[in-house]
């Protein structure tokens, strides 16, 4: 279906939307220490859709949390666009997450007392900025939410709530959107709707998406899949299909984590 509005201009960004170098993240100490990330270096291209996958305990969620400034690293560097986030204080990190990063969570994280429209506009409201009506209208139209804007989360289906969460993540036109298992609580139909929107947000809006998932079918919507095992990147698959993702994951089934590795 053609869009009601002309294509929005793409954001001007650096070559890599996210750049991580030699990330080390460990929890605990001594014999109880767990190394979640072991010297991980990876770039995520601007205007691309990348999935992060790996077995349970591989470090994939820790990697995303460190990239998004939700967790600290013990060593290494993370850049979002032109901004080095490693070492930023809490106030600066909060400002960066508000202005440059969008989040989509498995649990939706909508405020139950606000309507769908109020939830979508919340990031701009918190920032004290006025949302671009044309941009917000385009996102709402693309997600088919126009007739749900006055509804509160309890009046929406799971798929509708996640679409509201997607709209909220894109409302400020961030440098990058991090999606943590965004289809984990959805049925097959709703999952497909959300994944098609994420794909379209890259193709039509020039958005950068980094998604953690355990689902090969979800990963197949991405341009690239980065695989972690035992806190390290072990595969980097471009133009994935569900079958190629499954074949790659099979190689991890018999891998035994080293002592003190993975999370």
Automatic annotation (TrEMBL):
Among Gene3D superfamilies, the record links this protein to: P-loop containing nucleotide triphosphate hydrolases
Highest taxon of the lineage: Bacteria
List keywords of the entry alphabetically: ATP-binding, Nucleotide-binding, Transport
Which stretches make up the ABC transporter domain? 18-255
GO CC, sorted alphabetically, is:
membrane protein complex; plasma membrane
Among PROSITE patterns, the record links this protein to: ABC_TRANSPORTER_2
Q: InterPro entries in the record, alphabetically? A: AAA+_ATPase, ABC_transporter-like_ATP-bd, ABC_transpr_LolD-like, MacB-like_ATP-bd, P-loop_NTPase
Determine if Lyase is one of this entry's keywords. no
Query: What's one GO MF term for it?
Result: ATP binding
Q: What is this protein called?
A: Putative ABC transport system ATP-binding protein
């Amino acid at each position: 279906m053609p869009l009601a509005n002309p294509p929005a201009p793409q954001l001007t960004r650096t070559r890599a939307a996210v750049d991580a170098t030699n990330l080390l993240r460990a929890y605990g100490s001594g014999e109880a220490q767990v190394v979640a990330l072991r010297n991980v270096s990876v770039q995520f291209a601007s205007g691309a859709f990348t999935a992060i996958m790996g077995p349970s305990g591989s470090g994939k969620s820790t990697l995303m949390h460190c990239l998004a400034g939700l967790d600290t690293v013990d060593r290494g560097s993370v850049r979002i666009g032109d901004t080095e986030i490693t070492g930023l204080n809490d106030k600066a990190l909060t400002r960066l997450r508000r202005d440059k990063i969008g989040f989509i969570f498995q649990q939706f994280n909508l405020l139950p007392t606000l309507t769908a429209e109020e939830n979508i506009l919340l990031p701009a409201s918190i920032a004290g900025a006025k949302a671009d009506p044309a941009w917000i209208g385009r996102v709402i139209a693309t997600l088919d939410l126009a007739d749900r804007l006055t509804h509160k989360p309890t009046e929406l289906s799971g798929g509708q709530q996640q679409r509201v969460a997607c709209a909220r993540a894109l409302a400020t036109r961030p440098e990058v959107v991090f999606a943590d298992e965004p289809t984990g609580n959805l049925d097959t139909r709703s999952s497909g709707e959300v994944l098609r929107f994420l794909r379209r947000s890259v193709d039509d809006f020039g958005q950068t998406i980094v998604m953690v998932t355990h689902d090969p079918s979800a990963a197949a919507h991405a341009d690239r899949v980065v695989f972690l095992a035992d806190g390290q990147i072990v595969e980097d698959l471009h133009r994935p299909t569900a079958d190629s993702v499954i074949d790659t994951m099979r190689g991890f089934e018999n891998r035994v984590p080293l002592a003190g590795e993975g999370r």
